[in-house]
Amino acid sequence: MIKVNCFAHLKEQAGGNHIHIDRKEMSVKELLQEVQEKYHIQTDSVLVAINEEYAFPDDQVTEYDTVALIPPVSGG
């Protein structure tokens, strides 16, 4: 099972701090598709971090990784 940490407004949309996906391995692209379909979270501008490093759509996520969904951030 892949545990995904959610931050900022994504926590509210997901209904909590974490999302659990019942897979052992998947690509970042597949992860974002599942999050969008299952939790109705708009993922167009969401960044994914795997083990505290930004990930690309073709990168693989496993159940042993630390995964985070990071919304766009702005500030001054």
UniProtKB/TrEMBL annotation:
<dbReference type="Pfam" id="PF02597">
    <property type="entry name" value="ThiS"/>
</dbReference>
<comment type="similarity">
    <text>Belongs to the MoaD family.</text>
</comment>
<dbReference type="GO" id="GO:0000166">
    <property type="term" value="F:nucleotide binding"/>
</dbReference>
<dbReference type="InterPro" id="IPR012675">
    <property type="entry name" value="Beta-grasp_dom_sf"/>
</dbReference>
<keyword id="KW-0547">Nucleotide-binding</keyword>
<dbReference type="InterPro" id="IPR003749">
    <property type="entry name" value="ThiS/MoaD-like"/>
</dbReference>
<dbReference type="InterPro" id="IPR016155">
    <property type="entry name" value="Mopterin_synth/thiamin_S_b"/>
</dbReference>
<dbReference type="GO" id="GO:1990133">
    <property type="term" value="C:molybdopterin adenylyltransferase complex"/>
</dbReference>
<dbReference type="InterPro" id="IPR044672">
    <property type="entry name" value="MOCS2A"/>
</dbReference>
<protein>
    <recommendedName>
        <fullName>Molybdopterin synthase sulfur carrier subunit</fullName>
    </recommendedName>
</protein>
<dbReference type="GO" id="GO:0006777">
    <property type="term" value="P:Mo-molybdopterin cofactor biosynthetic process"/>
</dbReference>
